[in-house]
Amino acid sequence: MNIHVNKNLPLSQVLEARIPEIVSRWIACVKKNVTAAKINEMVDHAIREAAVEFEQTIKEKNKEIFDVLNSTSDGFFSLDHDYTITQVNRSHLEITQLPEEAQLGKNLYDVLPGARNPELGYWKSYNEAMEKRKAVSFVEYYQELDVWTAVNVYPKSDGGLAVDLIPRMLMTSLVFPTFLIFVQETLGQGLKQRDGFIRFLVAVLTGWR
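Below the sequence we write its predicted structure tokens.
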């Protein structure tokens, strides 16, 4: 018994749509005095066949999606509920300057320890998105890589996170603190280095694109 899957439907609907066909074949088997065991075997085979084809369809669609992600200049990576990195694209590898084997299956904060700093947006926003299951966006400077990033974090249905990371500008470790001190002195000593407004202003004034 061959069942062809509609690739736009979930498996449950695929099977449900085929129930009339399965029933009609069952009736035909009864009329031909086919044994119940044989009928059950045929039905089980049809269901397994549909499930296998559906799983293959999902793999193909996932590959198509990841091919698109690999072609973008944005860095992309996904995490499971334990913050283990499960997927990375080519741009993310370039931004982090780390090979794929050094990231996949590893904890995010072991791979990028600077993101563990509780004063930075990475730690705060990843935790917020994970715990509250809501999308979060922020701008942050990652000192270890000397790069400004605009980050969008999205909760996934499997309990993890999908992260879109856009490198906005590169600054040398000498230029950043010097210019930051200048901005602070200009606007007032009451503003702290970690203040989000200060960091955003620095990015704009030094060539944000």
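Residues 1-6, 170-174 have pLDDT under 50 and may be disordered.
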